[in-house]
What we know:
Chains A, B: InterPro entries: Gfo/Idh/MocA-like_OxRdtase_N (IPR000683), GFO_IDH_MocA-like_dom (IPR055170), NAD(P)-bd_dom_sf (IPR036291). Chains A, B: Residues 6-126 form the Gfo/Idh/MocA-like oxidoreductase N-terminal domain. Chains A, B: This is Gfo/Idh/MocA-like oxidoreductase N-terminal domain-containing protein. Chains A, B: Belongs to the Gfo/Idh/MocA family. The structure is a homodimer of 350-residue chains. Chain A starts with a strand and ends with a strand. The radius of gyration of chain A is 20 Å and the shape is globular. Chain A folds into two domains: 5-141 and 299-319, Rossmann fold; 142-294 and 328-346, Dihydrodipicolinate Reductase, domain 2. Chain A is α/β, with parallel strands linked by helices and 350 residues long. The relative contact order of chain A is 0.15. The first copy, chain A, has helices at residues 14-26, 40-47, 70-74, 91-100, 115-132, 146-155, 182-185, 193-196, 198-208, 299-312, 321-339; strands spanning 5-10, 30-37, 58-61, 81-84, 104-107, 136-138, 161-171, 216-224, 235-242, 247-253, 255-267, 270-275, 278-283, 289-292, 345-346. In chain A, helix 5 (115-132) packs antiparallel against helix 11. Chain A binds chain B through residues 162-163, 165, 167, 169, 218, 220-224, 226, 235-241, 245-249, 251, 253, 255-258, 260, 264-267, 270-271, 273, 282, 284, 341-342, 344, and chain B through 162-163, 165, 167, 169, 218, 220-224, 226, 235-241, 245-249, 251, 253, 255-258, 260, 264-267, 270-271, 273, 282, 284, 341-342, 344.
Amino acid sequence: MTSTMGVAIIGGGLFVKGSHLPAVLECELFSLKAIYSRSLKSAQETANLIPDSVPQPDLYSEDSGAGKSYQDILQRDDISAVIIALPILSQPSFIEAALSAGKHVLAEKPIAKDVSAARALIANAQRICSSTKATLAIAENIRFFPSFAYAASEAAKLGKVHNFSVRVLWRIEPDNKWYNTTWRQKPDYQGGFLLDAGVHWAAATRLLLTGDENKPETVQAFTAQMCEHLPPIDTVNAIIKTQSGATGVFQNSAGSLLQAFEWSFSYEKGTIKIAGETVTVQPAGGEEHVKEFTRTNGVSEEVAAWAQSIVDGKVNPLQTPEQALADLEFVEKMFTSGDENGSTQKYELL
Amino acid sequence: MTSTMGVAIIGGGLFVKGSHLPAVLECELFSLKAIYSRSLKSAQETANLIPDSVPQPDLYSEDSGAGKSYQDILQRDDISAVIIALPILSQPSFIEAALSAGKHVLAEKPIAKDVSAARALIANAQRICSSTKATLAIAENIRFFPSFAYAASEAAKLGKVHNFSVRVLWRIEPDNKWYNTTWRQKPDYQGGFLLDAGVHWAAATRLLLTGDENKPETVQAFTAQMCEHLPPIDTVNAIIKTQSGATGVFQNSAGSLLQAFEWSFSYEKGTIKIAGETVTVQPAGGEEHVKEFTRTNGVSEEVAAWAQSIVDGKVNPLQTPEQALADLEFVEKMFTSGDENGSTQKYELL
């Protein structure tokens, strides 16, 4: 007899090993019952990271034979929730199967490969959940970074945005650990790293464009592939206009020798700058407040918030599929604009 | 009997007092013979800044009566060159009159209020100069900043540009010294401060986009007026595509609470960053070289280069009207795009 909920982790990638697993082990509302990966080897590698002092989960995989498939996890009564962290194109069918089995789902971002697939997923999920009473949450750990959460709460006090710039620049080299998975090297979906990582920067940017008048309305972008090993594109540069007519830029490159992780926003009543782990807030005419944050990726906070939302019976507002859809639309419209040499794209969902 | 050339300064504004006057006094090739301003009071104020040890120039103005007009300066045989630093809309007629009188001219940027007026000026100047043998140079002091000159020479070694960002953000408050002239408060020309100061940032950006393949080809921009006291616009955010297909952003605001003076460029073979007076060059895979420059506005270097060019009989390549025209086009195409909600504009002159 236990008061915890049984949870399974679906996926055995780097992020599962480094972030989801410790977050689940840390969460007092959960007990980890199962791990699934495509290969037993990968599931075992993940399980090997669990301290001996903790009850060990059962392992499932495509190559484990009868009674050890993904469907078998979904039939377990002692598992009420699953975290799904698979390659982008595999996600929707795994999500729908889990929801159909009545399991609550936390699925990794992006919600799907494109807005159209995401809308189909949301429609299917709504239909399924109305009968199974399961819930779908989409993970976006950047909304749980303490730095961005603080910046978002400050942004809400500063009124109309005047102008802004977002600069996330780095170079994914061929020996990068995130690069060394086939699905990332030869992406069969738009944007490559600019989709996979880009939705994070979209989410962060949207946190700083709070309030109806600050919502992004129109975007135009140029895209480019500057590094041969980063198809289909590795660089996007966009201009954005908000509902109130303010303007800003969004720059993201996975193929740049420059290094930047910066959000700089000027509002009616002050400015907010995020650079790395440092957040600087300065009211107009007032003094700078500088806050240094410890580097954390927010996954522990995210998993804890999700567990609590299951207890509460209501998806956390920071984890709704609609938020994830808007993040996806934020970058997809840039890709579309870039494909069309900078055509004007209107945001519909934000 | 002297080996120096007689020069006159036309204008009595802040920049004349703070920069042109000391630059001329410092230049061994020149002797200052005359100062002209609209009012004698202003000409006198400028002259008051000249040390007693230096021969005092004659003063000319619109309110000084017979023999003391601008035309009277142009008739003096002991004056061979004039520096013209008047409000933007006044410049062309003063320039043409001086060239007609056979005087060499260094005229302040922007070359004119728009590309069309600049082309007319250049055509007129060519026609006039072919008979009078005078020469027309357009001032752009940023090309003589030691920091930008160094960055430009480094940029030329780094190959194809991959991506870039330019961020020049500040707030012109109503009590700003540059704001307190009628022609700047109620500009009768495009762009306001974004033209007047913007051509500097255009020139600096073009220095870092050296080589044919790196030339800006296409631009799209959103413009906005966020501060009531800064008509017609105070903010431009643009995306630029180069001949080779690389992309970058150009941000300029005179109405932002953010402060930035930054050029960040990634090329095939390394990066260059200019932030304030600091230039950082980093070859790909190599170490950063950081150079700190003393703050200077380059006007002494600019005036000395111009004087030397007169001696040499050939306009300095950094001071040709064509360079100034390209700087003007760089920003004008952004304003046009902004007026048309981000329409695609092709650069023709760069």
